[in-house]
Specification:
Elements: H1 9-20, E1 27-33, E2 39-47, H2 57-67, E3 71-77, H3 87-103, E4 107-114, E5 117-120, H4 121-124, H5 127-130
Parallel strand pairs: 3-4
Antiparallel strand pairs: 1-2, 1-3, 4-5
């Protein structure tokens, strides 16, 4: 999906699907976007265990800054297939939104994929109202 324009979460899910959807280990990946929400680059940041992966905002934003992208979408998979966000997912999303606001690099969404399904943390929480992003 190089240069695909991300118009809603399902388009981002399609871009992430091959790397995340059916994996047996948790993985966290990012889509880096230009000012028109087109994909500049995609990277898998971490590969964890069957139940967790650890990612730090500095590792994520380091890749965004290197790519020259100005927006990002984060996604990870739940090998169990349960796409409900865990407390750790919410905590990481808060940290990413704070960092994104500080760096003026908008985080557009955090997606959870698994076994053919996905959930947008942006759509199921009010975190983006708590941490408004530049447009």
């Amino acid at each position: 999906p190089d240069k695909a324009e991300i118009t809603d979460p399902s388009v981002a899910v399609a871009a992430f699907s091959q790397d995340l959807m059916w994996q047996t280990q948790e993985r966290l990946a990012i889509l880096m976007l230009d000012n028109r929400n087109r994909i500049v680059a995609q990277r898998t940041i971490t590969i964890g265990t069957a139940t967790e992966t650890l990612a730090h905002p500095r590792d994520i934003f380091r890749e965004v800054l290197r790519s020259g992208a100005i927006k990002l979408i984060v996604a990870h998979n739940h090998p169990s297939g349960n796409t409900d966000p865990s407390p750790e997912d919410i905590s990481l999303t808060r940290q990413l939104l704070e960092a994104a606001r500080f760096l003026n690099i908008p985080l557009l969404d955090h997606l959870i994929l698994g076994n053919g399904d996905y959930k947008s943390i942006r759509e199921v929480t009010n975190l983006w109202q708590e941490y408004p992003q530049a447009s």
